[in-house]
Design goal:
The complex is a heterodimer of chains A (about 400) and B (about 600). With about 400 residues, chain A is an all-alpha fold. Chain A is built from 17 helices and no strands. Chain B has a 3-stranded mixed β-sheet with strand order 1-2-3. Chain B is built from 24 helices and 5 strands. Classes of the chains: A mainly alpha (about 400), B mainly alpha (about 600).
Chain lengths: ~400, ~600
């Protein structure tokens, strides 16, 4: 560092100059930092005020249904307060709900990286992936949300997330996942919880009728709610437990006499039970009568179906496969009078096998039957469980 | 070098006019020793100073950004939307004030800060008036805040450079260091504005310094880093853009990026040619019109904003963000890109202070998004998101318009933090760069410099300059090659038979020497004709050259030796040719004639 006035400065002085310069620079830097800190703080306050104003405006616009205006204001709010968690989350939710998935995802992932335990962020991400039908990712974030950090009413939040998760999974027809969620939920649910009825209904929606029936029974142990009776009757019906269904539906019909669906299911259940030749505690004569009646009903169904579809049952073969069934039916019909106590069980089994074959085959050709044929068809689906 | 005692030495103050002073003799030794020590200390001090320059530039850029934001809020409102009368009025009125300030108070704030910093480095010994920094700060904050389609990076760069220059002048640094301070400050200012130190360093090297220089790299990096640290300290580490999930899935997608590169290249040419045509045209208008040019442009931009495109007003970073998140349809993106080119061109050519970095990124992002959206519409099976195209598009315009190819690639990587996108970025940028260079050979900054009557070195030109190599000038070794074990008489016979003045001698194991005919005759006269050349010679070893060395390397030897052997790198005993001072001169003369012809 040589200067023009070097002659007036001795080398020792010059050697000291860097130190002086450095001290001066440090002092200037400290002063600069203080000044800028002051300015940044003041400007920051102003920006915060602006962002609050814009946020409030966006809430008003949301209430008015102007989501685009709300998004624009939230963006501006974030321009002034870019780190605000609440604004980012609100914007991400709005973007998600208005279909702008990529940007919503970016915001939410950034928020998640900042606070991976945050329940609200995880829930928002779960809903985002749910919208995109990315089931596994949605489940992952729903779980994160369930076990994440919430405010005061954390139990309530968790319950509603579980509910939402199950609804989502049922909507996605991911029944095994939904059933797994529900089973784990029942494990932590108190015996007399108001939620048990909802759970039972969700089990039914998730096609887990066994667990649904179990939950309805638990509810009914505490109170005879009509909804529980109806639900129990329906799931028992779905399980093919027509005796149980009949019991519950009878009570349900008393509670809700105007409910046509219950009445119809009750009638069908009764018809199935009346048509069942394998039922316990009935006489052998009654069994034979039911079997013979079933054979007659199925024979008529076969002939009616063939006529409706213009199928010639006397032809050597037909594509519908009804001829062999008809020939078997004719053969059994001719032996009908030869049922003896010695061969009664075998004869009944043969008859009912044919009845079930006919009902199932005609259903595939001529559609769902009604009345006694419907009862026989239902019986064919679960012949041994009907009386449960 | 220590001069004899009692002599007079002229010590010239760096950066100042020659003013010889007499140093007393008894001080001379001490001053000489002091000079050595201070030279070493100056290097370290310079590095330390770079850190302080970074800190001060960072602080200044923060204030600058706050000023722009505050002006924008005050003039256009906190959330500008179309059909707001403020958008129509504010830019025009503020532009009038800015014009008065530029014409009467801060005349040097006109033009590009990059070029002014470059001029400081190459012409004015690093001198940038501090007044320029103040003027740039005030006028650019007003103009950008009022909605002119310009960015804060170029002024930030110049503010940094001016601060560094002012600081350096107080430090009494050597002229060499004083010159280098401007780019050091420029890197700090740009890094603070961009929040991207690597891009800032690369840009300063590519565009301001114009050459790769190891001597300054450390200082530039230090200043850039320290300024970014200061900015992040105060304003947080939030990136400039919220980059969506981007990626490169299938190699066939590169075709789509090539299209983007081509479109970007043409857009860059349109952009730069418009500026190149309109700038001198407006400057040539009568002086009184200069008061109103910026205001008229402000009115046009305000009108565009008022009619529904406020996105083009100001730097527009938040809208780049939105473009990357599919907020606009591709048609809207295309329109915004076109309007932004128009608005930026008009703002810049009207002499309104402000930079072109942010508008370039804006146009690139919008254009990228538009191309991506259009490709999606035509080929719905394309997997790439529009956000990815917008991100790549920023780099494309940077490469095509600002012609900083290295910076363009690293800038995208730095702002995205995503390495997987590097291949599309390189491919698209290369196409844009090549197309822009073919259609507009002079880069924008060089064009602006020349319009201002200056000629400054450019890395792009330097890259394209033909570098002469030794192999271009060397001649085949036609002279007979002698071995060191051959007797003197045989060498003399060869020299006399072929009438050659200089003979090359290969000396074992791998050296080279040469001997003249006269020397051989003298040896023969001394009775040493039977002796081997190697022992008879008081062997003066020749240096050798490799064919791929720059021709400059030959200049270091040929004035001392009549010929210099050019040998194979893998076998130094293998002679490829010889080179003499005449060969070198001939080659340079030929090159000079060729270049003159090209220029004519």
């Amino acid at each position: 560092m040589l200067s023009s006035d070097m002659s007036s400065i001795n080398p020792q002085q010059m050697a000291r100059r860097p130190a002086v310069v450095l001290v001066t620079l440090v002092i200037l830097a400290i002063l600069g930092f203080s000044l800028v800190r002051h300015l940044v703080n003041r400007f920051g306050e102003q920006r915060k005020a602006l962002s609050r104003h814009l946020y409030q405006r966006s809430l008003t616009e949301q209430r008015r249904g102007d989501s685009q205006g709300a998004i624009a204001d939230l963006r501006s709010a974030l321009d002034y307060d870019p780190d605000n968690f609440q604004y980012q989350l609100s914007l991400a939710r709005l973007l998600r709900d208005s279909g702008n998935i990529p940007e919503a995802e970016t915001y939410l992932v950034n928020l998640w990286e900042r606070d991976p335990q945050n329940g609200a962020v995880n829930l928002a991400l779960a809903r985002l992936f749910a919208r995109q039908h990315l089931t596994q990712k949605a489940i992952q974030y729903y779980h994160n949300a369930m076990y994440g950090v919430w405010g005061n009413d954390s139990d309530g939040e968790r319950e509603s997330i579980r509910l939402e998760t199950v609804h989502y999974l049922i909507g996605e027809k991911a029944f095994p996942d939904a059933q797994a969620e529900l089973i784990s939920w029942t494990a932590v649910l108190p015996a007399n919880s108001e939620l048990r009825l909802t759970l039972a209904e969700l089990f039914a929606e998730a096609q887990d009728y066994e667990h649904a029936l179990e939950q309805y029974r638990q509810v009914l142990r505490h109170s005879k709610k009509a909804a529980a009776l109806v639900g129990a009757g329906k799931v028992a019906y779905q399980l093919g437990h027509y005796r149980t269904a009949q019991n519950y539906l009878t009570e349900a019909a008393r509670a809700e006499p105007q409910n046509k669906e219950i009445k119809q299911m009750l009638d069908t259940s009764s018809a199935v039970l009346d048509a069942d030749p394998f039922m316990r505690r009935i006489s052998s004569k009654e069994r034979n009568r039911r079997a013979e009646s079933a054979l007659a009903v199925s024979g008529k169904r076969l002939q009616d179906c063939a006529a409706a579809r213009k199928i010639d049952l006397s032809a050597a073969s037909n594509t519908a496969g009804l001829t062999p069934l008809y020939q078997r039916w004719l053969a059994l019909k001719s032996k009908e009078r030869k049922i003896t106590p010695a061969n009664a069980a075998d004869a009944r089994d043969s008859m009912m096998d044919l009845v079930f074959d006919i009902e199932q085959q005609t259903q595939s050709i001529c559609g769902a039957p009604v009345g006694k044929d419907e009862a026989l068809l239902l019986l064919s689906q679960n012949p041994l469980g009907v009386d449960r | 070098m220590i001069p004899p005692e009692g002599t007079k030495r002229e010590i010239q103050s760096p950066g100042k006019s020659a003013d010889p002073v007499t140093v007393p003799a008894n001080h001379t030794h001490r001053i000489a020793w002091f000079s050595l020590v201070t030279t070493f200390r100056e290097e370290r001090f310079f590095l330390l100073l770079a850190v302080f320059i970074g800190i001060f530039s960072g602080l200044a850029v923060i204030c600058f950004r706050l000023s722009i934001d505050w002006t924008r809020v005050a003039l256009l409102g906190p959330a500008p939307r179309g059909h707001d009368i403020r958008l129509l009025i504010a830019p025009a009125l503020v532009s009038l004030l800015v014009s008065v300030l530029v014409i009467h108070v801060f005349p040097q704030v006109r033009g590009s800060g990059v070029n002014q910093t470059k001029a400081a480095l190459y012409i004015y010994n690093g001198f940038i008036p501090f007044r320029t920094a103040i003027g740039k700060f005030i006028t650019a904050a007003l103009a950008i805040g009022a909605g002119h389609s310009l960015g804060p990076e170029d002024p930030s760069l110049q503010i940094g450079a001016a601060l560094a220059s002012a600081l350096g002048r107080r430090m009494d640094l050597s002229r060499e260091k004083l010159r280098l301070l401007a780019p050091v400050g420029a890197a700090a200012g740009l890094a603070a504005a961009f929040n991207a130190p690597i891009s800032a360093v690369l840009f300063v090297i590519e565009e301001v310094i114009g050459r790769w220089s190891a001597g300054i790299l450390g200082s530039v990096v230090l200043s850039a880093i320290s300024s970014v640290v200061v900015v992040r300290w105060f304003l947080g580490s939030e990136p400039l853009f919220h980059i969506p999930t981007v990626g490169f899935v299938r190699p066939t997608e590169l075709i789509a990026y090539v299209v983007l590169g081509v479109v970007g290249g043409f857009a860059a040419v349109v952009f730069s040619k418009s500026i190149g045509y309109l700038r001198p045209l407006l400057r040539a208008q009568p002086r009184w019109t200069h008061y109103f040019q910026s205001a008229a442009v402000g009115l046009i931009i305000g009108l565009i904003g008022y009619l529904g495109a406020p996105q083009i007003m100001g730097a527009g970073y938040n809208y780049i963000d939105q473009a990357m998140h599919n907020q606009f349809t591709w048609e809207v993106l295309g329109i915004l890109a076109g309007l932004k080119i128009l608005a930026t061109t008009l703002s810049f050519v009207s002499g309104t202070p402000g930079g072109m970095f942010a508008p370039t990124l804006f146009v690139g992002a919008m254009l990228g998004g538009a191309v991506g959206g259009a490709e999606h519409a035509l080929y719905p099976h394309l997997m790439v998101s529009t956000g990815t195209y917008a991100l790549v598009g920023m780099g494309v315009l940077f490469a095509g318009f600002l012609r900083a190819p290295m910076t363009s690639v690293f800038m995208v990587l730095e702002v995205s933090g995503n390495y997987s996108i590097i291949i599309p970025v390189i491919v698209a940028n290369t196409f844009a760069y090549v197309i822009a260079r073919s259609l507009q050979p002079t880069p924008i900054f060089d064009m602006l410099t020349r319009q201002d009557g200056l000629v400054l070195p450019s890395l792009e030109e330097e890259r394209e300059q033909r570098v002469l190599l030794v192999e271009d000038a060397m001649e085949p070794a036609n002279t007979p090659l002698l071995n060191g074990n051959e007797p003197v008489e045989q060498a003399l016979r060869v020299a006399q038979a072929m009438n050659i003045e200089q003979l090359l001698v290969r000396v074992e194991p791998s050296g080279w020497s040469c001997i003249s005919k006269d020397a051989l005759q003298n040896l023969a006269a001394e009775g040493k004709e039977k002796e081997p050349l190697a022992s008879a010679l008081s062997v003066k070893r020749l240096p050798w050259l490799y064919p791929d060395l720059p021709l400059d390397a030959a200049l270091r030897f040929i004035y001392r030796y009549p010929i210099v052997p050019v040998v194979h790198r893998a076998d130094r005993r293998r002679l490829l040719g010889v080179i003499s001072s005449q060969d070198v001169l001939n080659k340079y003369q030929t090159l000079g004639t060729e270049e003159e012809t090209v220029e004519i």
